[in-house]
Amino acid sequence: METNQSHHSSPLQQPGQTTNFFQSSTAKILMVGLLTLVLLIPLQYVKSLIFERSERQKEVVNEINSKWGGQVYFCGPILKVPYSTYTENKLIDEKTKQVTIQRSRIDQFAYFLPNELNADVNVNTLQKNRSNYESVVYNSAMKFKGNYTYPSFGDNALPENIHWDKATILIKTNNIKSITGGVTVNIGGKKYSFEPAPSDKENDTLSSLETQPVNLTTAFTTGPASFDLNINYKGSEKIAIVPIGKMTHASMTSNWPSPSFDGSFLPENSNITEKGFSANWKVSHLNRSFGQQHFGSLPNLQANTFDVKFLIPVNQYQQNERAAKYGFLVIGLTFLVFFLIQSVSKIAIHIFQYSMIGLALIMFYTLLISITEHSTFRLAYIIAGISVVVMIALYSISILKNKKFPVFIAISLSALYSFIYVIIQLENYALLVGSIGLFAILGAVMYFSRKIEWK
Question: What are the tens digits of pLDDT across the range 403-412?
Fold first, then answer.
């Protein structure tokens, strides 16, 4: 007996129905992810704009600084004493075998650094503006006091070959045109003026200031020769001073509230307030890489300085650049919020609407940099953030057809922008706070996406 078997359609799939991949959650998130990558192109243009404006600021700052005065390097005062050495060469006449001794004279200089050096530096900073750019410049008054012990040549020269009557005082600096007014030194009860002088060696990038011959006979009559020297500079960015004393004590005061201490020697103590700072250094000759006496030529002392930088700590373009680095994170997380709402509420959001939201997020950075150039970064960040959050919230009302989800989106965006602002302001704890925040965000995404059907 034959049994007739009728073929019926599966109850899981009705006749005429086919599964559309492009309507699945997987396809939608792939398209959103692709759009996120595409939006990196205009985001990169925004970063290029920030870089361009930053380079323009550097050009303007360099122009202002070059006209006012650049970085200041000071090394001095150094006692410079000329001396002569002699060499003998034997010349033998081949015919007569007569020996002639030829004596040659070589003139050299000996350099003696102070036994004690006390430096008192006062720096008054000013902020110069041109268009939307600003630079920090300063007027500095430097006072140096100390003494020299009587120079000892040892075996380097005989006493009769030392030209004491031609001794001078020397200063090495980087920019003579930054000096304001005359420069004089008092030593042995007499005042001597400095004048520009040629360098003692080739390829010397520093300038020299030197006095007329100093009367050392009277300077050392009662023991160590005391001196005091005053010099004023107009400069910018940095002051670097070489502690050439066998024992150097230095103090610096300024109205600049955010100094950066650099160089080979940090201050022993410093006090920084909103009205300025004060700092003190104490450097022994044992802490340096050079001695107190040099014969023939001076070594390069530029690596042995204590420095103070007068720079704006984090300028507006650095802050904008750091904010733009989080652009991909903002776009990705915002799209993820919309995708989760779309998946939970079953409301269809077109890829064009995602594009408009992404472009609004990128406009945040163009608003930020343009407003920052006319105000503070904080105010610009608040204005740009509120503008973008309100725009996206209003736009999402028309997309999501209610007010519950747009309010959630506005709160989420506000929290995200606040989180990024905190990271930008932090320095030492930026990585720690950022990592904890991203971990919390990942946990929230995992929680809300756990029930999404990905088929």
Answer: 788 888 888 8
Residues 241 and 375 both lie in one domain:
no
Sorted by sequence, the CB contacts under 8 Å of residue 170 that are 6+ apart come out as 76, 77, 78, 79, 80, 111, 197, 208, 209, 210
φ, ψ dihedrals at 272, nearest 5°: -115, 125
pTM: 0.71
Q: Is the pLDDT of residue 368 over 70?
A: yes
Domain that holds residue 170: 71-313
User: Does residue 402 or residue 268 have the better pLDDT?
Assistant: 268
User: Same domain for 351 and 287?
Assistant: no
pLDDT in tens, 16-59: 444 555 556 667 777 877 888 888 888 888 888 888 887 887 78
Same domain, 225 and 238: yes
Phi, psi of 384 (to 5 degrees): -65, -40
- CA-CA distance, 48 to 41, in Å (whole number)? 11
Chain Cα centroid distance, residue 37: 32
Report the domain count for the chain: 2
Please state, in angstroms and rounded to a whole number, the distance separating the CA atoms of residues 54 and 61. 10
CB atoms < 10 A from the CB of 187, how many? 24
Check whether residue 187 and residue 92 sit in a common domain: yes
Domain boundary among 267, 290, 313: 313
Regarding whether 122 and 95 lie in a shared domain, the answer is yes
Please spell the DSSP secondary structure of 95-156, one letter per residue.
TT--EEEEEEEEEEEEEE--SEEEEEEEEEEEEEEETTEEEEEEEEEEEEEEEEPPP--TTS
Give me the phi and psi of 378, to 5 degrees please: -60, -50
Of the residues 249, 281, 313, the one at which a domain ends: 313
| Contacts with 50 (C-beta within 8 Å, 6 or more apart), sequence order | 317, 320, 321, 324, 365, 369
Q: How many whole angstroms separate alpha carbon 20 and alpha carbon 26? A: 11
Say whether 297 sits in a helix, a strand or coil. coil
